[in-house]
């Protein structure tokens, strides 16, 4: 399961790099499908992943406003920061939580930790598929979605960030 | 890992249903991104999944020609048939193969079974994300990509098909 997180993070970072060739206007342009724009997609997958991980941890949701993260640099910074926290969690022996039933504030249903982890993973891969179509519409090759042949960075190599960082925005 | 296969198969079947509202011409229409058309996407994910599973099993690849499967009914039939074989394999204790190194005819690199299973799963979810954009371009809501809230059909409920069926085409 963790390998899928490592895969998603690697692919997400490559899309951040890909974004740098465009100005913010192009990245914010309304497009057909998905959540509507390239940058909002990257913000959305970052935000959704973090919300569900906090849900699993029994922590209150932190709501991020997209207007506060309206550039590639800001979304990338948010993604990096939240990822460090998530990696810390994934390093723990969370396998014992697998069947634990979770309630979150934004959904009336209850799900197991295992279901939620599957959901987070599929959610990001699905949205990245949408970016790949928009990339072709811009006449550019998309980032490869191949799982094989990638050098994945282990969750164990992400550094811990225990201090508060939200004041940075 | 198996739950992702069950998820992909459920979502794929819902896309087959979704396809029924269109004639074949619309489904074969060349579109921007991905592998180029809605029907070819569904054929491609079916074909790729089967090829890699056979690779894991040390079996020779079976090459399917898209021209032989140029309708929703035919691709769905192929998908169902191959899935029954794949489900049989997934029911076995293939976990012991996890670190086994695999060579396949279409790739010079070698991968572990575990990497290949991750690859198959991500490959399908990615392509389904592309279908969702094309669906919006057709002014139709896409099939939900949610993992949570789905009633997944267990691999154990797929029936065995040990007889040859390829003569049907």
Give a written overview of the molecule.
- Helix content of chain A is 51%, strand content 6%.
- Chain A has 169 residues and is mainly alpha-helical.
- The first copy, chain A, has a two-stranded antiparallel sheet with strand order 1-2.
- In chain A, strand 1 and strand 2 form a beta hairpin.
- In chain A, helix 1 runs antiparallel to helix 4 and helix 3 runs antiparallel to helix 5.
- The first copy, chain A, is globular.
- Chain A binds chain B through residues 3-4, 7, 32-34, 107, 109, 111, 114-116, 118-119, 121-123, 125-130, 132-137, 142, 145-149, and chain B through 3-4, 7, 32-34, 107, 109, 111, 114-116, 118-119, 121-123, 125-130, 132-137, 142, 145-149.
Which helices and strands, and how do they pair?
The structure is a homodimer of 169-residue chains.
Chain A: H1 2-19, H2 24-28, H3 38-56, H4 72-91, E1 101-104, E2 107-112, H5 113-137
Antiparallel strand pairs in A: 1-2
């Amino acid at each position: 399961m963790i390998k899928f997180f490592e895969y998603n993070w690697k692919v997400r970072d490559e899309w951040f790099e890909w974004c740098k060739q465009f100005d913010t206007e192009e990245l914010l342009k309304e497009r057909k499908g998905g959540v509507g724009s390239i940058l909002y997609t990257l913000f959305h997958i970052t935000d959704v992943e973090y919300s569900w991980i906090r849900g699993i941890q029994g922590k209150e949701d932190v709501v991020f406003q997209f207007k506060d993260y309206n550039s590639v640099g800001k979304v990338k910074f948010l993604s990096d920061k939240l990822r460090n926290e998530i990696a810390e969690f994934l390093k723990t022996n969370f396998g014992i939580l697998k069947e634990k039933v979770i309630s979150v504030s934004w959904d009336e249903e209850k799900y197991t930790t295992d279901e939620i982890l599957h959901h987070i993973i599929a959610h990001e891969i699905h949205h990245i598929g949408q970016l790949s179509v928009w990339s072709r519409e811009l006449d550019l090759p998309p980032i490869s979605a191949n799982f094989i042949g990638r050098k994945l960075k282990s969750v164990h190599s992400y550094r811990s960030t225990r201090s508060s960082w939200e004041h940075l925005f």
